[in-house]
Amino acid sequence: MNNKTVKITHSLGAKTLLFAIFPIVIILFGIIVYSAVRMFTEVRAEAESMLQNLAKQVATEIERSNSKAVQAAHLMALAQESGGLFANRPDSMELARRVLKESPEFTGAYYGYEPNADRNDADYLLSDEADRISGALDKNGRFIPYWYRGKKDNTQILLEPLVDMETSLYYQGVKDLFLRAGKPTPMVTEPYVYEGKMIVEQTYPIVIGGKFLGIAGVDRSLGDITSFTEQIKKRESVDILLISRSGRFISTTIPKQDELITKEVKNTIYAQVFDAFLKDFKKPSFELATDPADGDKYYFASAPIPTGTWMVILRKLEADITAPIRQNMIYNIAIAAFGLIAVILLSTWTTRSITRRVQRAVSAADTVASGNLSATVSLDDASSDEIGLLMRSLKKMSESLKYKMRILDSISTGDYSIEVAPQTEQDTLGHSLAKMVVSLRQVVGHAEKIAQGDYSQNLTPRSSSDQLSISLNSMTCALSQARDTLEQRVQERTDELTEYTRQLESRSAELQRLTEESQTLAAEESSLTEISTRLQGKLTVSDVAERALASIAGFLEVPVGALYSLEDDGKLHRRASQALPPEAESLESFAIGTGSVGQVARSRRMAVARPKDAALAVTFGFGKMPARQVVTCPLVASDTLTGVIELCLFDELSKQQSRWLNKATEITATAMRFAQETRERELAEERTRLILESSGEGLFGLNAKGRATFVNPAACKILGYPSQDLIGQSVHALIHHSHADGSPYPPEECPMRAAFTKGVVTTIDNEVLWHKDGRTIPVEYTATPIVKEGTIVGAVISFRDIAERKAAEEAMKAAKEIAEAASQSKADFLANMSHEIRTPMNAIIGMAHLALRTELNPKQKDYLEKVQSSGKHLLGIINDILDFSKIEAGKLNVETVDFDLDKVLDNLANLIGDKASAAGLELIFDVDPGLPRNLQGDPLRLGQVLINYANNAVKFTEKGEIFVKARKVEETETDLLARFEVQDTGIGMTPEQMGKIFQSFQQADTSTTRKYGGTGLGLTISKQLAGLMGGDVGVESEHGVGSTFWFTARLGKGAHKKRGFLPAPDLRNRRVLVVDDNAQARLIMSEMLSSMTFRVDEVASGEEALSAVSKADAEDDGYEIAFIDWHMPPGIDGIETARRMTAMRLKTQTHPVMITAYGREEVFREAEGAGIEISLVKPVNPSILFDAAIRALGGEAVSETPRKVSKPGETTAVDLEPIKGARLLVVEDNILNQQVAEELLTAVGFVVDVAENGKIALERVQETAYDAVLMDMQMPEMDGETATREIRKIERFAELPILAMTAGAMETDRQRCFDAGMNDHVAKPIEPDLLFKTLLRWIPSKDRTAGSTSSGSVKESIAVSPGEGFADPLEGIGELDVRAGLQRVMNKRDLYQKLLRQFATGPESLTVETVRAHLAEGKREAAERAAHTLKGVAATLGAGAVHKRAVLLEAAIKEGNAEDEIEAHLETVQAALLRLIPAILKALPPEAATEVSEPAEVDWDQARDLVIQLEALLAEHNAGAIDFFEQSASILRAALGQAAASVEDPLTSWDFLLALEALRAAKADCKQLQ
Length: 1570
Known about the structure:
The longest helix has 70 residues, at 12-81. The strands form eight sheets. Strands 1, 2, 3, 4, 5, 6 and 7 form a seven-stranded antiparallel β-sheet that branches. Strands 26, 27, 28, 29, 30, 31 and 32 form a seven-stranded mixed β-sheet that branches. Strands 15-14-13-20-19-16 form a six-stranded antiparallel β-sheet. It is an alpha+beta fold.
């Protein structure tokens, strides 16, 4: 029996030991690791905290040192600003010395004044005081004392002037910082090395009255900081580094790293380590990193130093911090090792007793496993445990295997006759052996049959697993198939060999053919090369033709042939022939397309003809022979036809010959083209020579060296040289060597040289050439380079004598200067006169405007209206004179913009309508429906001519009508010619008067001037304007009957705009009635309505209208709209007609629309009382009429804005609400004009300051934030132009709107304003509406209660028009007038919704309960105040029902009514609130989250302005105070402090009175707000 030793790693004992020890080891290891990790984490946290605290301490100490230096500089500056030392130079110098003396840590102290800051420096330099302090002054007397310590004696203090004032950071840097920040700001400069020390400068600006006047500063060495850091290093064992704001090292305690000082961190080995620290100087940082200097790991911590924006970084070695952790780890590991050894010993003793018995069983099993079944195995074991049972089972197994082994030995010897008897039914091995013996017997029998060649039988497998039988069957089948396949393959190989033999023979024949073709091609290429060689050289066309024909005929063995060349006459001429028959000799040329030659030339394709027998015979000496084929080929080179070749052959061409012929003809064509081009060049050169000789201009050619190669006779004549003296000479040296003044002309600067050296084409007209006799010849010459095959080979110079032209130009220039001087004198005179007249005119018209807005009796009002009317009339005359002056000077231009013709006519109606109605005239517009409304042109000038014509018509017409007509005369795809007429029924003119009416300063007669007034310039200007618009003017008149003034204008077609109406009603075939006593007005309106598809009837009076309406209704075809004129004498007027019509009981309701020429408010009120909902003011254009019809029929029209009618007492037609409250500065020297401007602007809601001249204005804009400046031009001390330029130099005023408001109205005046930097121009006298529109254009629209445009950044509210984008559920609340509410909060939808939400959820919703509580407590005044608040809030929000009930409630409480009466009012209020509040909450959108802003730093100037504005809003009980407070909350809360809540709480409760009292109390307690 073989004994086998088990490896210790596989032994049962080892496994037992492993399972006993492994959990213990894991637990011990986990405890050790957990302890180590926790200790490392705690130590790192402690290290981080310790290092960061230490870094903060170091930073604090350095910050204290820096702050002390900054404070010293600040105190020095304060001594100048408020201590009275400014301009006291000796005392200032002494203060700086004393600061340095008493502060040993400082190395210098100094002052630096701006030049001439306190006085004139140059004058001061001559004073006695300057001698005493000369060391503190520079050479110009500027005060710049610098005290510093001596190099050897630190106690010695020396004085010298500062240096590099304008370039140094310590001066220019702090100055720039003040100008950017707008306030004094200290500066700590970048440290630098000086005499081996790190020096840093602390400076502070000297600012007095908001103006920078100089600096105060101290220098400090960083030695004290270095000493301090060295002490910290010794005490704490840390290294300290100090880094400046530019990222440079300025101090370090790291050994051997002094070279780091002044170096940028990014350029040192610490760039990567400190990258994270330097990203944010204001943020402390901490990290563990490897120091690149020694490779050790360190903990780094940083802390910021605010003053100077420095950073301190501490470094501590990681090993110093983690040493205690490593010691503790060693102790823990030792304890764990001792415990582990004890466990191993105990486990070993336990397992040894088990493994001995197991080893015996293993030994017996190994003996059986080795196949030694004959050996005796000792497996006796008397024990009854599991191992004993195992031993006995192994013994039984050994005996059974020995029996089976004897059976297998017999089988192995080939004895299959043995009989196997299984020991038991469960003896599977015995059964298997018996079956195996039977199977082996069958296999042996089958193998014997295969060996005999019998493949017909197969074995029957005993089972699907009988692989031996299955394999034998497969082998039998495979052997049978292999025999059949072998026989088939033998036959196939025999067939293949036969086929290979046949193919080999075929390819040998093909190879022989290719060899022959190759030889043929070689012969062809050789012949083509020969042809190409023969055709080279300088040959004529005939030479080429003869050589080519001979070569081609020779190769192809052609008996007859001819070659034709295409000549300049467009025909093909024979240039070579061979053996032509006599009858063909005369055919020497062919036209393109004639004969076979001409046909081939046209088609450019080869033609092959095969004549019939004897049809074409070739004559030989022995007779004739018929041709078999005629080939005609075109000669084409680079797509250009050069000729045709025709050949007659006895044998047809083969493919190879045809291919060769194509190549030969290409070579021939190329040679022909070259010969033709050569001939053409020769002819061209000959023509050029003739042209040059006959040219009147001087011409000469230059080669690449600048020498003349040819000169024409004209050049020789001009220069006085014969051609032989010029040819071959340097042209520049001979005739171009000097300028006109005799100064040398360097050749390298000559434009002629640039032509043949650089290829530049140049034309010069200000130089001279020198004549042979030495005089100069002024010439104009052109130098053109000559380029051949991409190379510049020379130049051609053409020139002409311009002496006569120069003389003429000088004469014209002199005449022009005289004319311009005269024109300028005239313009200056007009400008000065305009300014002098406009200045008092502004006062006259402005004062009249202001006075008319006061309470006046009728006589005073009449006087002032006449004064204002006369002033405006005079202003019109001045404007006409200026326009005429512009026209004469050619400076009046028209622009081309898109415009709406209806708006131009509407503006005409606004301006002329009132005048016409006041004169008892009817103004009627008649506009061609086919004339487009959207046009391109100058609407201003177009309207100017119409207004001029219309004004004249009103002026010269006492009764009747004025017609304004517009017609389309002609039309193209892009533009049209329009004709405009103004027809009146006035005094008319005679033919003589019409002949001079359009002349300057001319009228019909002098009496007209006296009776009607005028300058006679209006029509002249109109004529010029019409001409500028591409048209003409004219007049048709009959004396005593009337006149028709017309003009035409060429106008472009604008983009088509869709009308914005909602066409709910269908207008087609609707029946309408026009009622007007004026036949022309009826006709025009009827035509307009008919073009809109209405059925229109007309009547002339109210009575006829009533009758027509009644009749139509009876016929069941009633009128749906009646357009009724208001004034129809002598019968009933339009209002009475409409009233009676409305009272009629009609089947079809007739909607009256009133049309009146009198736009008075009382007329409209009377019309509304009569039930007329729509009223129109004459003249009515088609667009307005169309919209009125849509509205009358129940539709909605939004395409037009109705013409505004001025109402009594209305100040202006311009809506100034978006910029109301803006602060304006008026710069004006005239006291009257100051008063006009101030009162005019203040009256409409502006805050106005006045400055008397530009100098004062410059100071004011820097002291106060203005939204715009109105600047006069001519003022004493500093004019408007200079003031504007000075303001624009200040960066923060780059966008400040500055508007010229001046009496200078000339175009030159306007341009001067714009050149100075002004934004716009308003001419005096001031037209209020024009001024207001200009202010609207330039002042940003925002909430003015939040401050001006320059001082704050208050968020703008978004203004919307009433109803714009607001068609939401709020509109559906019946008791809420949304439009009225929006108007009261300046159309700010967000604010309106916020106020509604506060109303619905705030104390106002509990007013009833509040009033009842106050009344119960006897507080009647408080109850009245609550009712008053509700009344005001409801009125503001448009809650009409609540407002009315609150009014009654307040009155009842105030009058002391009985409690039951007050209770009744309370119930009505409560009912109204219960209806309104739920509807509001339901309709409002969800409330957005409110952003919380951080407290802002207090700007007391801004805070003071905001408090003043808030106080004004509260005093007016303006609801905008709530929005204002919210938008300015951060500043107001910071300024008011704790008092802000006492203002804000009553404000949000709409208690404006209480909020006002709290604001005034807070203002009184705060000095900064007073």
